Structures are given as C-alpha cells and as structure tokens.
Amino acid sequence: MLEMHFGNMLGEVIGDKGLSLVEIEDIREKTAFAHSQIHDRKWDELAFIDLVNQDTSEIKELAAKITGNSDLFILLGIGGSAMGPRAILDALQPMHNFRNHPRIFIYENIDPRTLEAIIEVIDPHRTTINVVSKSGNTAETVASFMIFWEHMKKNLGDEAAKRFVITTNPEGGILRQIVKEQHMMSLPVHPSIVGRYSVLSPAGLLLSEIAGISSDELLLGAKDILTKCSNAELWENPAYLFSVLLYLMCVKEKRTINVMMPYADGLKSLSEWFCQLWAESLGKLGLGITPYPAVGTTDQHSQLQLWMEGPEDKVVIFVRIVDYGSNIRIPKVFEKIEEFGLLSGQCLNDLIDAAAKSTELALSNASKPNMTITIPVLDAYHVGQLFMFFEISTTFMGFLFGVNPFNQPWIEAGKNNTFGLLGKPGYQKQKEDVLRMAKENVCWRL
Ligand SMILES: O=P(O)(O)OC[C@H]1O[C@H](O)[C@H](O)[C@@H](O)[C@@H]1O
C-alpha cells in the first residue's frame, strides 16, 4: 500500500518554517466541508470515483482484436486524453515499442512535422487509430482525426472506418455523431467525468490493455486506496492530509509552488499528468498552487540548487519506489581509483536510495518542507493507487480553496477564441477581440 511520510512538513522536524498541529486542527471546519462535498456526492463530476467498479470486458475484447490485427496503435488526443494514457504506458511498459507488439504512439501536439513523419511510416492496413476526446470537440484532436481519416480512406476505401476506435462522450459531441454514421467501434467516457480525471476510464484503459497492462489491476489499486481516502477523519485519510498540509503551506507560508519529483523515469509522465490535474483544477479566482514536474535523480543535478537557496516558495513532493524490481549491480571495475571503488559492487537501487535520502535530508536540515510518497513496487496496482490518491487529493484541495475543481473556464475561453479565428459562425466577437489584441501588440522586428 502507498505510504505518505509527512514529518518534514511539521515544525517539530524542520523548525519554524514547518506547520504546527494546532494549525492543522484549526481548519477542521473547512476540512469537514470539503469532505461533505465528496462524501455526499454534491458534484456529478465525482463520477470518476465509480470507475473503480466498471466492467472492463468490452475494453479487453476490443484490445484483443486490435492486438491481433495491428502493428501500430495510434492514440490521438490532447490534455487529459493523452497525458493519462501516456502516464500509464511510461510507468508500466518502459521501452514498449522496442519490446512489444503492437507499437504505440500518442499524437498529442498538432505539430505538422510529427504528423508528416507518422503518416510516412504507417501501414494503413495494420494501423488502428484511437481518437480520444471526452468532449468530442477539441479542435486539435478533431483536426488530427480529419487528417488521418482522409489518409486511411485514400488507402483503404470503405474499410477505413474499421481501423478507428472513438473514445468519447456516449451521448453528445460531434465525434459521437460520426461513430453512428460510420458504424465505428467506440468506447464511452461517462458524460460527467472531466478529461483530466478520466485516466481510469476507457480513455486510459484501452491503451493499457493493448500494452499488456492489466486494467483490472489498475482499478483494484485505485479501489483499495479509495477505501482509505474516503475516511472522514483527517489523520486516517492520506489524501486529505496531503492536501491539508499543502494548503496550509500555501496560505500560511506562501509556498505556492509544489514540485512533484518521482525517483523513476517511468513516473515522469505521471508527474506531468499530476501537473495538469493540480493546475487546471485549482488555479481559479486568484488561488491555486503552481505544480512543477521534476524527476529524481536527474533534477538533483539541475534544479536542486534553486530549491535549496532560491525563493522560499516551494514544497517538494518526492515519490519513492522501495523495490525497482531490478538489482543491477555496478561491476567491480577500475576499483583502484577511489571514486570507482566506492561505487563498485553497489546496486543502482542503493545509489538512488542514497541520493534521494540525502536530498530529503538536505532540504529538511535547511528547513525546506517536503513530503515523501512511497510505493513498494512500480506495478499496475500501485500506479492505480497513485492516480486515485492524487484525484481525491485534488478535489479535496479544490474544496478547501473554495473553488470548483472540475471546470476550466479560461481554457474554454481559449478554445472559443480559436474557433473565432478559424471563422466558426457565432464566434465573430472572439475573432475581433483576438485581432484587436494582435494589432495593439508591440514587438521588435530585427
Ligand atoms: O478530451 P477532450 O474533451 O478533447 O479535452 C482535452 C483537453 O481539453 C481542454 O484543454 C481541457 O482544458 C483539458 O482538461 C482536456 O483534457
């Protein structure tokens, strides 16, 4: 089970920059309010919690079919619809494309050079394209879909529709309309689930099954931690405590940046997924916390100096793995040279462990608050736990701040400006606003 070590957030351990138990107890009213929002299911968007009980048989059937008839699986999506699936793949199938079949590629950003390169190498007869869009109307995803559709049509004619799977809202959206018209394969994402909370829905689970990662294990981990993270008592609920400590560090100590630093390459994408969740859910009404992705040990050699001696505005959250499932030992070569001799015979695990502990200690000794989340092994069960732990923490934190953790009004505004510029009827005002701003812009042309 996931563990959360929070001693280094407390005054007793790190001195006067830490929190006191009184400060934590003082916000009981707020925490009770936040708990009631979740417990009483006051928001439809909390439907992500029910994903732990979903039936995965349709996803598995589809995955088996795709695995049998495809050499390449391309996921088209952006934001939560790409970051969640990528977090699963990178965490649990490192170097997937070199070792497993079918190869998987996630096309998120609409960079034309990337697209050209993909189109050049794919064999349409052996490629399946999964279009993932919760809303079904995100311009980037729709544009990529249109380009791939035309390409596949050109090559496969009427058979093209069979090479697409659309993962979207079961009721509305323009993609759903096309699914019906073209009789395409599709999977539903519950209408109330917001994209960034959709990783454990078919949006993430189809790719997971295709990569050979058990969706049931992901869901089981999420379900087990949910039991812990549903407890009304703050001290018994790791997700609530996680949020309360970061909330207090933000409002009392002005620590408005949270560094998310897993000690595993595979969790770098999960850290980016967390950043979207934290940023889009909390950044509202002048409130919120800026998330900052990092990875250990790499960022000890790149960012740590800033954390140690820069502005006092951060809390560092480490994610540690007890057993990496590998015991690569550093061989006994060049031992006569002292520095080589020191490393000879040690496991890479030991080196990571020493680096992580010493960083934690350095921060704590310098009174820099930090927390450590530990999982015993990096497997689907524990990755499922991490997803649900952070999702519950985020909603709870949103309610502590008093903001809606499920909307993103300014992203919608940006989407509307894009529609305006592209000439969508009804969006003339947005177009004029953007063009006026462009005119007023001052720039140097050199
Ligand atoms: O899955 P979609 O509906 O296409 O949404 C993709 C992304 O769109 C917007 O940018 C939202 O702010 C994100 O939260 C969402 O993940």
Structure commentary:
The chain is α/β, with parallel strands linked by helices and 446 residues long. It has 2 domains: 3-39 and 219-401, Rossmann fold, CATH 3.40.50.10490; 49-213, Rossmann fold, CATH 3.40.50.10490. It contains 19 helices and 10 strands. It has a 5-stranded mixed sheet with strand order 1-10-9-7-8, sandwiched between helices. A 5-stranded parallel sheet has the order 3-2-4-5-6, sandwiched between helices. α13 links the parallel β7 (257-262) and β8 (290-293). The radius of gyration is 23 Å and the shape is globular. The termini are far apart. The mean pLDDT is 94. The protein binds 6-O-phosphono-alpha-D-glucopyranose. The site of 6-O-phosphono-alpha-D-glucopyranose has 14 residues, from α5.
Question: What is the fold's blueprint, element by element?
Answer:
Blueprint lengths: L2 E3 L5 H4 L6 H6 L1 H12 L17 H13 L2 E5 L3 H13 L3 H4 L3 E5 L4 H10 L5 E7 L5 H18 L7 E5 L5 H9 L2 E4 L13 H9 L4 H14 L9 H14 L5 E6 L5 H15 L7 E4 L10 H6 L4 E10 L14 H6 L4 H18 L4 E8 L2 H22 L7 H13 L6 H13 L6
Parallel strand pairs: 2-3, 2-4, 4-5, 5-6, 7-8, 7-9, 9-10
Antiparallel strand pairs: 1-10
Helix pairs in contact: 3-17, 4-10, 5-10, 5-13, 11-17, 12-17, 13-17, 18-19
The structure holds 6-O-phosphono-alpha-D-glucopyranose (G6P).
The site of 6-O-phosphono-alpha-D-glucopyranose has 14 residues, from α5.
